[in-house]
Write a structure and sequence with these properties.
The protein has 250 residues and is mainly α. It is built from 11 helices and 6 strands.
């Protein structure tokens, strides 16, 4: 028979466990302190880098995107506040605030044409036209960052992906799976017909018409009854290059 350990043995075992626990806590604390020290060093180096390349960060889109990537890796968000070190040093907060205002203006001006759904590419084209006199170029990455900050206002701005396109939604329209599939189909030529959707998606005519009618009511589609073969064409300005080129000229 195995003998049970005595009281002395149990005490020694408990003391050993406490020592191991304390050792583990000390090692964990040491690692945490080292990580904090490393992050502080990285932040200091990042601040120095920002001071040195301030003009490049503001004026060069590619450089600005790389800077944001560096910030994200060490948990720094230069856009978290319009006040403080980063805003004062770079004026980045002002840059994105101004861009956000211009995004709202473009979305409002084009809403009657596209129903509040505009492709990210078209939005950027409009912004570049508006900012021709500025030396600070704008990229899709800049637009995405500015739009992410607009969410704080509860303004309904959202970026959605349909097929290969990113679309900016500025109205609280809820698109279901049927609507998304039709918009994805329309990306090829900018429009669809009832017959085409029926054939490609194997839907009933009732399902197609119901989805298209909703898109028309929401202002996301325009109907063309004057086609030579007598078919109705449902145009979608938010994915049509034809409407994009017209919009950028106005």
């Amino acid at each position: 028979m195995r003998r049970r350990p005595g009281i002395g043995g149990l005490q020694k075992a408990a003391a050993a466990r406490d020592q191991y626990r304390l050792l583990g806590e000390n090692v964990a604390k040491l690692r945490t302190d080292m990580m904090k020290e490393q992050l502080a060093t990285f932040r200091s180096q990042l601040e120095e880098f920002a001071r040195k390349h301030k003009n490049d960060i503001r004026k060069n889109p590619a450089f600005r995107a790389q800077f944001h990537e560096m910030c994200a890796k060490i948990g720094v968000d230069p856009l978290a506040s319009n006040k403080g070190f980063w805003a004062e040093l770079l004026g980045i907060g002002d840059f994105y605030y101004e861009l956000g205002v211009q995004i709202i203006e473009v979305c409002m001006l084009t809403r009657s044409l596209n129903g509040g759904l505009i492709s990210l590419q078209e939005l950027c084209n409009h912004l570049r036209q508006r900012r021709k006199k500025d030396r600070e170029a704008v990229t899709e990455d800049d637009c995405l960052r500015a739009i992410s900050k607009l969410k704080i206002l509860g303004s309904g701005f959202e970026v959605i992906t349909i097929g290969k396109k990113k679309l900016v939604r500025s109205v609280p329209t809820e698109l279901n799976k049927d609507h998304n599939q039709i918009l994805e189909l329309a990306q090829g030529q900018g429009f669809v017909t009832v017959e085409e959707v029926q054939r490609l998606l194997s839907w009933t005519s009732g399902r197609v018409i119901d989805a298209l009618e909703t898109l028309l009511e929401e202002g996301l589609a325009m109907i063309d009854n004057g086609h030579k073969d007598g078919k109705c064409l449902y145009w979608f300005p938010c994915v049509s290059s034809v409407y994009s080129s017209i919009g950028s000229e106005t």
